[in-house]
Design goal:
Layout lengths: L1 E5 L2 E4 L4 E8 L6 E8 L6 E6 L6 E3 L7 E6 L4 E6 L8 E9 L8 E3 L3 E6 L1
C-alpha cells in the first residue's frame, strides 16, 4: 500500500500549484480521500476532502475559494489545485485515504507528504 504525493515546491505569493497523490495497493474507489497539512509548530489540519464518488467535497475555511480537490478513480489519483497561494499556506501537505465501505471501513492510510513553500 502506498500513497505518494508530488507537485510541491517553492512558489511566490499569489501563484498556483497542483499536488497529486498516486495510490497503489488498495481500491481507491472504496476510500474517502483527503489532503491535510502541517506547518512548523502547528497542529495538522484538514485542508480538503472528497468522498468516494467525488460528488461531495469539504474545505477548511482558510482555503475555500482558492483550493479545489478532485479525484480520478481510473488513475487512482487525487489532486489538489491550489490558487492564490499565501505565505500562510506553507506546510507539508499529506494525502490520506479513509476506508468508506465494505471491509475497508476503519482503515486509514497516510502518505509521507510534499513540501509547499510560499514566499512573500
Amino acid at each position: 500500500v502506498q500513497l505518494v504525493e508530488s507537485g510541491g515546491g517553492l512558489v511566490q505569493s499569489g501563484g498556483s500549484l497542483t499536488l497529486s497523490c498516486a495510490a497503489s495497493g488498495f481500491p481507491i474507489s472504496s476510500y474517502h480521500m483527503s489532503w491535510y497539512r502541517q506547518a512548523p509548530g502547528k497542529e495538522r489540519e484538514l485542508v480538503a476532502l472528497v468522498n468516494i464518488v467525488g460528488g461531495s467535497t469539504k474545505y477548511a475555511d482558510s482555503v475555500k475559494g482558492r483550493f479545489t480537490i478532485s479525484r480520478d478513480n481510473t488513475k487512482s489519483t487525487v489532486y489538489l489545485q491550489m490558487n492564490s497561494l499565501k505565505p500562510e499556506d506553507t506546510a507539508v501537505y499529506l494525502c490520506t485515504a479513509e476506508g468508506a465501505r465494505y471491509s475497508h471501513v476503519g482503515i486509514t492510510y497516510w502518505g509521507k507528504g510534499t513540501l509547499v513553500t510560499v514566499s512573500s
